Amino acid sequence: MSRARTNRWTRFRRNRPKQFKSGASVRLLEDIDGYLPAMLEAIRSARRQVLLETYMIASDETGRQVIDALCERAKAGVNVRLVFDAVGSRMLSREDRIRLRDSGARLRMFHRLRLFQLSRFFLRTHRRILVIDDTVGYVGGYGFTDDWSDRAPRGKYHERVWELKGPVLNDLQRAFRWGCGRAMAAGVEILDPAPRHDDVAWRVMSLTHLGRDQALRRIARDLACGANARLWLATGYFVPTLTFRHALMEASRRGVDVRLYLTGEKTDHPLVRIAARRSYGALLASGVRIFESVARPMHAKCLVVDEGYANLGSANMDRWSLHFNRELNVEVSDKKTNRCLADSLLRLEAQSKEIRAADMTHRSPREKIMGLVAALFEWAL
Predict the structure, then answer these.
(1) Residue 191 backbone zone (phi > 0: left; psi -120 to 50: alpha; other: beta)
(2) Could you tell me the residue ranges of all domains in the chain?
(3) Is residue 356 classed as helix, strand or coil in its secondary structure?
(4) Phi, psi (5° rounding) for residue 323?
(5) What is the CATH T-level fold of the domain 3-19+208-380, as seen in this structure?
(6) How far apart are CA 309 and CA 209, in angstroms?
(7) DSSP assignment, residue 205?
(8) Which superfamily does 21-200 belong to?
(9) pTM check: above 0.85
(10) Does residue 48 sit in helix, strand or coil?
(11) pLDDT at residue 83, rounded to an integer
């Protein structure tokens, strides 16, 4: 191990425990069949406050289940505060927006597109935060549209969500209040500290616009440099920085089990997939194993390192998450949680195709040409 990498990892390990807190309970939920019923039950049981920030909600069968539950709680006098991204939630009908507001919920459509503010198109809220009272919260890459359901034409998304309890909820409430705007923030309650549950150590990563907080990039790089046994990464959109790509390759060459779980042919962003495949050759040559989902699109965003670290949230490993979007991930330092997420990725691996070096040498001329096009626009992917 080089002296520079040793010093970087030493600093990382020395500083990280000071930033972790303890007392949380973490449960992993898989796909919409796991998270949506739990969320609806939690919303319907709310007594004081529901906070929801999400990138995607639509006026379809899936979205209306959530909208109905929110309206019912707002009419019952519960403090319902909502932040929906104006681009990601563009399929939310005007009628449903009016219905939410008429029920008593406070709704903010984040960064509506206006003629003289087109630069705001790149500044989206991609975070997923749902906190009910001081009882339970949910983070991940989830959405409330039929794209996550069996009704999706490409098949429902592979998704992973953490259900959180304990003091971590206070940090999620503060993260929501920070991003909901001044007018709405005044009515957001930071409820009394939730009681301790399990002794899981955690840290909330709230990432801001335009690289003002490079925590995701820095942590991913340092983890890759310091991993000893394994580094397994699942992400729906993989357009990494050159530094992170080299860190993965270096980790693999020194014997770390590096695996990437990425989206296959059934993707909602074909150009992003083509851009990702441009880096496959070098990664495979260094020993990195790559798995592409077959039957359904990949949308999970999680990371497992060695036997004690796990990271899950809304951030992809692409330029939008690293530079433009508001994101939120939760890091966990706990062997049981690490093992649970690793087992989930192994189940995902069983539904995926492993990419070999030979697969990349027989790419079609069309894919090669599209790869060159993707290279020109990689900064925006």
Answers:
(1) beta
(2) 3-19+208-380, 21-200
(3) coil
(4) -125, -35
(5) Endonuclease; Chain A (3.30.870)
(6) 26
(7) E
(8) Endonuclease Chain A (3.30.870.10)
(9) yes
(10) coil
(11) 97
